[in-house]
Specification:
single chain; 377 residues; Serine Threonine Protein Phosphatase 5, Tetratricopeptide repeat; two-stranded antiparallel sheet; elongated
Length: 377
């Protein structure tokens, strides 16, 4: 009766709830401490999930296995790390949980950390950030995707110790360069352009280049950082061609405009063999205009707006022979343009960097009509 298989065994229900006395009684009457519910979770796993420290201690005292694999290939200790439960981690480790046990993909517990407190605690338990996984990458690379942990890695000697060993393979991240895109400006400011360039492979041999991926996504800030650290605008990091070619074919007008203004070539001859005709011609002509055939707004920008958008010296609205009387200058109007959300200053923005950002905002507002409320005197 106590150990019968059901959707929710009674011991699992007791472990999940804060009913210590009931849990003790069940274990004393012979309940199986490693029984599983329909989702494959043990009573210990459920106690850890609910941050129930007392129940976890009772189960471990009666022989529960802290290293039993549960649902989604997770162990109890991994669940405690995901819950940022510092005390539960100590309870499990003191009762035999192995902090070096790895996830199904070969990554360590460090890759699950979302706070620097837990990250530092796991380092104190002896976990090695340089240990590789099944993909051949050190765990410290994955830790850079956490906003709190990456700041700790950058501001301490950890990054100087680890980052020179292997460049970050962006292909291991689901979103490629976008996964650490927000981190790049902080990396450049703390480490310098040369160090960041050694960490980011801007010209991979077998995968798409970071610049091409940023162009396809329209990530202008990432494009700027990559160019600043030395990414080649004319590197063919995609089967279509350069970053400008991929942006044009993808319909990313903002990226097209940005890359052209940063100096990308609109036409060039490639030596890469893409088609049968290329094989006979020994070369292939690439044109961003031709690749934008399905995107008339990009073609219009290449042929017309690229020239009309340039800043010009404006002539008087009345013309030279205007008889309209001149009126005295009425003074300066003060406008408030609040910068909130993503446009507000971030903790990692330096003073000079933020001033440059404000200049870009002001420049982008030129020639636009702004609705404003008259300020009181």
């Amino acid at each position: 009766m106590l150990n019968c298989k059901s959707h929710a065994p009674i011991l699992c229900l007791a472990a999940k709830q804060r009913r210590c006395e009931l849990l003790k009684r069940l274990l004393e009457y012979g309940a199986n401490y490693d029984i599983r519910d329909a989702a494959g979770r043990t009573p210990l796993r459920l106690a850890v999930q609910e941050r129930n420290h007392d129940n976890a201690k009772i189960l471990l005292k009666h022989g529960a296995n802290p290293n039993a694999r549960c649902d989604r290939f997770l162990f109890a200790l991994q669940t405690a790390v995901l819950r940022n439960d510092h005390e539960m981690i100590d309870i499990l480790v003191l009762n035999g949980a192995d902090p070096n046990m790895r996830l199904w993909n070969g990554r360590s517990l460090l890759c699950l950390c979302t706070t620097r407190k837990i990250f530092q605690h796991l380092l104190s338990l002896g976990l090695d950030p340089l240990a590789g996984n099944l993909e051949g990458q050190p765990d410290v690379h994955y830790c850079l995707t956490s906003d709190d942990v990456d700041f700790f890695i950058l501001q301490t000697s950890l990054i100087h110790t680890y980052h020179h060993r292997e460049p970050i393979a962006l292909a291991i991240f689901k979103d490629g360069i976008l996964a650490i895109g927000s981190l790049l400006p902080k990396m450049v400011r703390v480490l310098g352009k040369e160090s960041v360039k050694s960490m980011i492979d801007t010209e991979p041999a077998h995968t798409r280049s970071p610049l091409c991926m940023a162009a396809i996504s329209g990530a202008l800030d990432i494009i700027d950082v990559l160019i600043d650290i030395g990414a080649d605008l004319e590197f063919e990091g995609h089967p279509i061609g350069t970053a400008l070619m991929t942006a044009s074919a993808s319909g990313e007008l903002s990226a097209v405009r940005h890359l052209v203004r940063r100096g990308a070539k609109i036409h060039y001859v490639s030596n890469r063999i893409q088609t049968i005709s290329d094989l006979f011609n020994k070369s292939s002509h690439r044109s961003a205009v031709a690749l934008a055939e399905r995107h008339p707004d990009i073609i219009r920008w290449f042929l017309v707006n690229r020239y009309t958008e340039q800043l010009k010296i404006q002539s008087s609205s009345g013309g030279i022979g205007s008889e309209e009387p001149l009126r005295p200058w009425s003074g300066v109007r003060k406008l408030e343009y609040p910068l909130v959300g993503d446009r507000a200053r971030q903790p990692y923005n330096s003073s000079i960097g933020y001033l440059r950002y404000l200049y870009k905002v002001k420049r982008s507002l030129r020639g636009k009509v702004l609705h404003y409320t008259k300020l009181s005197d």
